[in-house]
Amino acid sequence: MSSLRTVTYSRAMTFAKSERAQLCDLLLVVGPDAPTLCEGWTSHDLAAHLWIRESDPLGAPGIMAKPLASLTERRMNEAKARWSYEELVGRIASGPDRFSLFSLPGVDEPANATEYFVHHEDVRRAGSAPQPPRPLDTEVEDWMWRRMKLLGRAFFRSSPVGVVLERAEAAVESAPGVETGESARVAPGSETVTLIGRPSELLLYAFGRREQADVRSVGEPDAVSALAGRGRS
Question: Looking at domain 138-228, does it have CATH number 1.20.120?
Answer without folding.
Answer: no
